[in-house]
Amino acid sequence: MRQQIAAANWKMNLTLQQGEQLLNEIIAKPHSLSAHQSAVFAVPFPYLPMAQAKLAGKTNVFVAAQNCSNKKSGAYTGEVSVEILQSVGIQYVVLGHSERREYFLESNQFLAEKLDICLASGMKPIFCCGEPLEIREAGTQNEFVAKQLAESLYHLSAEQLQQVVIAYEPIWAIGTGKTASSAQAQEIHAFIRAALAAKYGAAVADTISILYGGSVKAANAVELFSQPDVDGGLVGGASLIADEFVAIINALK
Ligand code: PGA
Fold first, then answer.
1. Between 246 and which of 29, 88, 165, 195 could a Cys-Cys bridge form, CB atoms 3.0 to 4.6 Å apart?
2. What is the CATH number of the domain that holds 123?
């Protein structure tokens, strides 16, 4: 079975102390991860060592950065490189979240550079894609997402692609309380997998985890994750509440 992943995206929330307390609460609650399931915590940069230390030794639990530089090293004030992240033990990074695309103007081409730098160093990217409301209303979401995939991913080899986790996040569902229906999620996840299959072959496409993101919560996680091409979720708001996120971990198939 493909890896099923519950990924928390804390975004720019919580103080260090609140983050520590949240992890303590999550660890204390009953949850179990089998070999094909993992939990990932994408926390603000300064909290990475705290989260690493707190989750050390837990099987299938990983800490992620929420972004990284497209440059290897050098005079880029304020940026954080893959090498810096790896030096504090980080193995996953979220790339191309819609908030970074929108507020920091990250383009598909720019994200391709970040993917290259991650994959050259063995860092696993969680690559986000997804359409804004006007594209969904026009019914052209498949074309929109296909372009994101083509421009950021399709220069990768099959081996490189297999290191990437994809997160489909319709922008109209992020932080809005408006979730895509499980049928809408399944439809576009199947489209993404078919697009990957057309480019890389079905055997490769079948191994890629495709997470759904956008107002995932305990109340809808089981239904969303039960869809055959939905391999877990990238969770914002609900990942800040221990009970909610533990229930989402426990909803993984
Ligand atoms: P949300 O955010 O769960 O708060 O909608 C998801 C995300 O942006 O990753």
1. 29
2. 3.20.20.70
